[in-house]
Amino acid sequence: MTTALITGGTSGIGRATAHLFSRRGATVIVTGRDETRGQAVAAETGGRFIQADLAVPEDVRRLAAEAGEVDVLVNNAGYWELGPTADTTEAGFEAMNAVNVRAPFFLTAALAPPMAARGHGAIVNVSTMVAARGAAGMAAYGASKAALEALTRSWAAEFGPAGVRVNAVALGPSRTEVTQSMGDLLDTLAAASPLGRANEPDEVAQVIAYLAGEDARPITGAVLAVDAGRVATL
Ligand SMILES: NC(=O)c1ccc[n+]([C@@H]2O[C@H](COP(=O)([O-])OP(=O)(O)OC[C@H]3O[C@@H](n4cnc5c(N)ncnc54)[C@H](OP(=O)(O)O)[C@@H]3O)[C@@H](O)[C@H]2O)c1
């Protein structure tokens, strides 16, 4: 049976991904800071919740140790502080890089080698269209996710020969808890794409599950745009 560790599984896209993996028979481990939401998702999916703050290196090490052997790692947790470059604090910059780059790096460092030793495994990293296209107010966030996309390609090269695939999804506007507060702005942003729509969390989960699953066995090192065609077009 497949065991999947999903970071940021307490909310939004991560929670939808946990539910989908569970419906498909996987053993699910979710992680996040929020004990109440995490325990709820664990109960709903018949899985396990491990509380961890991914901005804290010790928590990342403990999470990897407590998760044990996993077949699928979804590096979904993300953190962003948006605003002009001149207003970005060093603490905010570091927090984005801690959660969006350092935590996936060291989780993968701990969990991919055992996958490689077993000869199979899949990692899916959750990025944003802002990694590939400039957006005012999103410089530090976009740069952190661009680093995650670079890691995706390097890990594909490093772990592919041992049978471990590593891919990413680059999301357009998606309707989750964090974007609820944006109100109409989410739909305005989504309207700029050819399909003119925002992603629903379950739709993103389906793509993540595809990349993690056997149907995607020829695919590694890919960054798949899940953005209603936004970055592919003028
Ligand atoms: N929604 C969008 O429009 C959109 C667009 C492009 C990319 N994305 C990416 O999609 C991913 C999921 O976002 P979402 O929209 O589903 O957001 P969300 O509903 O706010 O979920 C974010 C998740 O990340 C976890 N997280 C954040 N900081 C953490 C930390 N320090 N330690 C541990 N967990 C932490 C949160 O868990 P706790 O609260 O329990 O700590 C939560 O489960 C992110 O990587 C985001 O960058 C989203």
From TrEMBL:
InterPro entries documented for this protein: KR_dom, NAD(P)-bd_dom_sf, SDR_fam
Matching SMART domains: PKS_KR
Every Ketoreductase domain range: 2-172
Pfam family of the protein (one): adh_short_C2
PANTHER family: EG:BACR7A4.14 PROTEIN-RELATED, ZGC:101858
Name of the protein in its database record: NAD(P)-dependent dehydrogenase (Short-subunit alcohol dehydrogenase family)
